[in-house]
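Here is one chain, start to finish.
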Amino acid sequence: MEWFEQVRAAEQLGDWDTAIALVSVRAECYSTDSHAHDNHLWHMRLLVCAERFPELTELALTDVHARRRLNRSLHERKMDAALRHRAQDGDSGALYRLVRLLCETGRVQEASRAVQDLGPEDAYAQQLVAGYRTSSSGAR
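Its structure:
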Protein backbone atom coordinates (compact mmCIF):
# COMPACT_ATOMS: atom_id res chain seq x y z
CA MET A 1 0.00 0.00 0.00
CA GLU A 2 1.39 3.41 -1.02
CA TRP A 3 1.72 6.13 1.63
CA PHE A 4 -1.14 8.19 0.17
CA GLU A 5 -3.41 5.14 0.28
CA GLN A 6 -2.49 4.77 3.95
CA VAL A 7 -3.46 8.42 4.46
CA ARG A 8 -6.81 7.93 2.73
CA ALA A 9 -7.49 4.84 4.85
CA ALA A 10 -6.57 6.73 8.03
CA GLU A 11 -8.86 9.62 6.97
CA GLN A 12 -11.76 7.22 6.49
CA LEU A 13 -11.18 5.85 9.98
CA GLY A 14 -10.83 9.31 11.48
CA ASP A 15 -7.26 8.45 12.52
CA TRP A 16 -6.06 12.02 12.10
CA ASP A 17 -2.77 11.53 13.91
CA THR A 18 -1.66 8.86 11.44
CA ALA A 19 -2.92 10.79 8.42
CA ILE A 20 -1.22 14.00 9.54
CA ALA A 21 2.05 12.23 10.33
CA LEU A 22 2.16 10.59 6.89
CA VAL A 23 1.34 13.75 4.95
CA SER A 24 3.35 16.27 6.95
CA VAL A 25 6.71 14.66 6.17
CA ARG A 26 5.96 15.03 2.45
CA ALA A 27 4.54 18.56 2.64
CA GLU A 28 6.30 21.79 1.77
CA CYS A 29 4.77 25.22 1.46
CA TYR A 30 5.53 26.94 -1.85
CA SER A 31 7.65 24.05 -3.01
CA THR A 32 8.73 23.93 -6.64
CA ASP A 33 7.61 20.32 -6.43
CA SER A 34 3.87 20.56 -7.02
CA HIS A 35 3.26 17.30 -5.15
CA ALA A 36 4.98 18.63 -2.03
CA HIS A 37 2.91 21.81 -2.24
CA ASP A 38 -0.32 19.85 -2.72
CA ASN A 39 0.65 17.73 0.28
CA HIS A 40 1.09 20.94 2.26
CA LEU A 41 -2.47 21.98 1.41
CA TRP A 42 -3.65 18.48 2.29
CA HIS A 43 -1.82 18.77 5.62
CA MET A 44 -3.66 22.04 6.39
CA ARG A 45 -7.00 20.38 5.61
CA LEU A 46 -6.17 17.44 7.84
CA LEU A 47 -5.33 19.77 10.72
CA VAL A 48 -8.82 21.26 10.41
CA CYS A 49 -10.44 17.82 10.24
CA ALA A 50 -8.54 16.87 13.40
CA GLU A 51 -9.61 20.17 14.96
CA ARG A 52 -6.01 20.96 15.80
CA PHE A 53 -6.66 24.66 15.98
CA PRO A 54 -3.74 25.52 18.28
CA GLU A 55 -1.31 23.91 15.84
CA LEU A 56 -2.99 25.58 12.88
CA THR A 57 -2.92 28.92 14.70
CA GLU A 58 0.81 28.57 15.32
CA LEU A 59 1.45 27.73 11.67
CA ALA A 60 -0.77 30.64 10.61
CA LEU A 61 1.79 33.07 12.04
CA THR A 62 4.09 32.37 9.09
CA ASP A 63 2.08 30.29 6.62
CA VAL A 64 -0.56 31.93 4.43
CA HIS A 65 -2.23 28.60 3.67
CA ALA A 66 -2.63 27.81 7.36
CA ARG A 67 -3.98 31.31 7.95
CA ARG A 68 -6.54 31.00 5.15
CA ARG A 69 -7.60 27.51 6.19
CA LEU A 70 -7.93 28.56 9.83
CA ASN A 71 -10.02 31.64 9.00
CA ARG A 72 -12.22 29.64 6.65
CA SER A 73 -12.76 26.98 9.28
CA LEU A 74 -13.62 29.55 11.95
CA HIS A 75 -16.10 31.14 9.52
CA GLU A 76 -17.69 27.79 8.69
CA ARG A 77 -18.05 27.05 12.41
CA LYS A 78 -19.56 30.52 12.95
CA MET A 79 -16.85 31.40 15.49
CA ASP A 80 -17.10 35.17 15.21
CA ALA A 81 -15.30 35.81 18.52
CA ALA A 82 -12.23 33.90 17.33
CA LEU A 83 -12.29 35.72 13.98
CA ARG A 84 -12.62 39.05 15.80
CA HIS A 85 -9.61 38.21 17.96
CA ARG A 86 -7.53 37.31 14.92
CA ALA A 87 -8.65 40.52 13.18
CA GLN A 88 -7.66 42.52 16.26
CA ASP A 89 -4.20 40.99 15.91
CA GLY A 90 -3.99 42.39 12.38
CA ASP A 91 -5.18 39.48 10.22
CA SER A 92 -7.10 41.16 7.41
CA GLY A 93 -8.33 37.80 6.10
CA ALA A 94 -9.95 37.18 9.48
CA LEU A 95 -11.59 40.61 9.29
CA TYR A 96 -13.07 39.79 5.87
CA ARG A 97 -14.35 36.42 7.11
CA LEU A 98 -15.79 38.11 10.21
CA VAL A 99 -17.59 40.72 8.12
CA ARG A 100 -19.03 38.05 5.83
CA LEU A 101 -20.14 35.94 8.78
CA LEU A 102 -21.83 38.84 10.52
CA CYS A 103 -23.57 39.96 7.34
CA GLU A 104 -24.63 36.41 6.41
CA THR A 105 -26.26 36.06 9.82
CA GLY A 106 -28.17 39.33 9.51
CA ARG A 107 -25.84 41.43 11.64
CA VAL A 108 -24.85 44.04 9.07
CA GLN A 109 -24.70 46.87 11.64
CA GLU A 110 -22.35 44.79 13.79
CA ALA A 111 -20.24 44.10 10.71
CA SER A 112 -20.08 47.82 9.99
CA ARG A 113 -18.95 48.49 13.56
CA ALA A 114 -16.31 45.76 13.27
CA VAL A 115 -14.91 47.42 10.16
CA GLN A 116 -14.85 50.81 11.90
CA ASP A 117 -13.16 49.33 14.97
CA LEU A 118 -10.74 46.92 13.31
CA GLY A 119 -10.11 48.27 9.81
CA PRO A 120 -11.44 51.77 9.31
CA GLU A 121 -9.06 52.35 6.38
CA ASP A 122 -9.66 48.93 4.81
CA ALA A 123 -11.48 49.64 1.55
CA TYR A 124 -12.21 45.98 0.84
CA ALA A 125 -13.84 45.44 4.25
CA GLN A 126 -15.95 48.53 3.63
CA GLN A 127 -16.94 47.18 0.20
CA LEU A 128 -18.04 43.89 1.76
CA VAL A 129 -20.39 45.66 4.17
CA ALA A 130 -21.67 47.97 1.44
CA GLY A 131 -22.37 44.96 -0.78
CA TYR A 132 -24.51 43.32 1.88
CA ARG A 133 -26.32 46.58 2.58
CA THR A 134 -27.11 46.94 -1.11
CA SER A 135 -28.24 43.35 -1.53
CA SER A 136 -30.39 43.39 1.60
CA SER A 137 -32.06 46.72 0.75
CA GLY A 138 -32.74 45.53 -2.79
CA ALA A 139 -34.47 42.42 -1.45
CA ARG A 140 -37.16 44.44 0.33
